[in-house]
């Protein structure tokens, strides 16, 4: 997940300290060998550095500087943070804090606290940080600030861990995930189309500095109770650079994508046509700027966009902004979502609920337990853009590492979510979270198909839904031109009347109602009505 500056936060923090590491020759170790390793660490070439350290450890197994450097490397390698602990514990034993200016003693304890934290040993991490803080020279203000932040992360983690969230999580399997990074899942309202980002080999052969392929967008279809093997979505969308998913409209007709030109990242949109996804069109200014716009989310009707940007004038790092579409189709004034949501840290990957009352987003601030955590906030005032205090969605959905790209279904009972978790296929995987039913949800998804007598999609039909008892109109919907499929989002426990009008065809009217979802349903499929065939008026007469 390198293209949007969402790499593991541990690397960024450790780089700040590691570049200040002064290497000197010790007990027969050659200074040039140690300097070469330090250079590799500073360039974040941790795998390469660890191999060189391992070679030196054959003849110097207890050398403190090698244990410290090996711990640092393992701490920054996927699924190796647990292996870092014994090396860092050895380094801690070798470097005393009695001398207040012993930089390596400080580093050993700081890294060890990081290792404990990433391995959910929060109490031990907190103890190391508290003991360390009193031994940091006052002039190291940046390091003291980082220790304070790490202390808060662990305190938050202890509190969140004491009240874990009740949920079930399952890996989406080999049809979706690979040994590479998969993230930013987009799910259609009826959960039959999954679009996501992966850095498996795709459109191009270019690689990033850490030997990973540039990201491409992939798609899978749910058929006969399983996901079909994901396929590259094609060269109209994917380029030789980084291309990533951001948002999918509820009807699956419009997608927001991210592209990075090597200097900055921008947001684009693509529409689904008879020939597939169209060439992405860049959002105009001031949505896109010369800075990084990393992620965006449409409202259900597509008239509101929430996006992340590191443009100047925010509260710090990346902030979240909102913009609404005007009646003439252009976009209005950009609004910063304010200090209730934005912090001095980064905010990213917003997801706006279908009714625009709930916003999910990732933040390194607020009550994060480490790196990016997922938060939710409720809109308090439609006109003044006031939001409730963001709430951490809880442990163990949120982890000590980076957790982003949270895509809930319409009823909020299931979430498609990217995370590096034990039991995955490699690096970041896409998972399905299912919550137990605690109360009847207000909204559900209903779909169906409309055809002509010839069996062709009746794309000219207009579907109107009203409440049967009051006649209140709930919405108007049109079938997809390629499939004849329509999708509606409606409240449960209500009886509806659906009217299908088509020029030159008879009007079709039918009644239906929706039931709530059962506890821990294996999969929350949409409710599908029987297919509708519209007949010519002359034939009906």
From TrEMBL:
Q: Which InterPro entries match?
A: 6-blade_b-propeller_TolB-like, TPR-like_helical_dom_sf, WD40
The superkingdom listed in its UniProt entry is Bacteria
What protein family is recorded? Belongs to the TolB family.
**This protein is called what?**
PD40 domain-containing protein
Native source species = Carboxylicivirga linearis
């Amino acid at each position: 997940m390198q293209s949007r500056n969402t790499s593991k936060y541990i690397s960024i923090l450790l780089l700040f300290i590691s570049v200040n590491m002064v290497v000197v020759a010790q007990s027969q170790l050659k200074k040039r060998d140690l300097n070469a390793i330090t250079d590799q660490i500073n360039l974040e070439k941790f795998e390469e550095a660890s191999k060189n350290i391992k070679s030196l450890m054959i003849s110097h197994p207890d050398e403190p500087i090698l244990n410290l450097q090996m711990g640092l490397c393992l701490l920054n390698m996927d699924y190796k943070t647990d292996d870092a602990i014994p090396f860092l514990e050895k380094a801690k034993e070798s470097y005393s804090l009695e001398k207040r200016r012993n930089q390596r003693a400080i580093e050993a304890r700081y890294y060890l606290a990081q290792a404990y934290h990433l391995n959910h040993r929060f109490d031990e991490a907190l103890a190391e940080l508290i003991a360390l803080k009193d031994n940091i020279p006052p002039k190291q203000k940046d390091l003291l600030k980082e220790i304070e932040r790490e202390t808060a992360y662990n305190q938050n983690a202890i509190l969140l861990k004491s009240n874990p969230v009740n949920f079930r999580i399952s890996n989406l399997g080999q049809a979706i995930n690979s040994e590479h990074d998969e993230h930013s899942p987009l799910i259609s309202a009826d959960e039959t189309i999954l679009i996501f980002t992966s850095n498996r080999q795709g459109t191009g052969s270019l690689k990033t500095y850490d030997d990973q392929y540039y990201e491409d967008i992939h798609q899978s279809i749910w058929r006969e109770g399983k996901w079909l093997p994901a396929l590259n979505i094609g060269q109209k969308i994917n380029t030789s650079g980084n291309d990533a998913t951001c948002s999918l409209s509820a009807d699956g007709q419009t997608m927001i994508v991210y592209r990075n030109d090597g200097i900055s990242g921008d947001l684009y949109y693509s529409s689904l046509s008879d020939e597939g996804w169209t060439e992405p069109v860049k959002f105009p200014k001031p949505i896109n700027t010369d800075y990084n716009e990393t992620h965006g989310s449409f409202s259900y009707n597509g008239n509101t966009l929430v996006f992340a940007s590191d443009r100047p004038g925010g509260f710090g790092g990346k902030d979240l902004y909102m913009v609404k579409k005007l009646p003439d189709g252009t976009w209005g004034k950009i609004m910063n979502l304010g200090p209730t949501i934005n912090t001095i840290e980064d905010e990213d990957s917003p997801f706006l609920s279908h009714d625009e009352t709930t916003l999910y987003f990732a933040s390194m601030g607020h009550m994060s337990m480490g790196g990016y955590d997922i938060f939710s906030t409720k809109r308090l005032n439609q006109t003044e853009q006031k939001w409730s205090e963001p709430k951490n969605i809880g442990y163990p959905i949120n982890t000590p590492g980076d957790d982003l790209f949270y895509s809930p279904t319409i009823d909020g009972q299931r979430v498609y979510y990217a995370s590096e978790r034990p039991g995955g296929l490699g690096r970041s995987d896409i998972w399905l979270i299912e919550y137990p039913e605690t109360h009847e949800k207000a909204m559900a998804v209903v779909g169906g198909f409309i055809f002509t007598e010839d069996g062709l999609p009746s794309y000219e039909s207009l579907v109107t839904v009203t409440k049967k008892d009051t006649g209140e109109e709930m919405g108007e919907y049109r079938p997809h031109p390629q499939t004849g499929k329509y999708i509606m989002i409606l409240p449960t426990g209500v009886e509806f009347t659906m009217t299908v009008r088509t020029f030159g065809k008879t009007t079709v009217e039918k009644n239906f109602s929706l039931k709530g979802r059962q506890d821990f349903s294996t999969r929350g499929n949409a409710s599908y009505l029987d297919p509708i065939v519209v007949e010519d008026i002359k034939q009906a007469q």
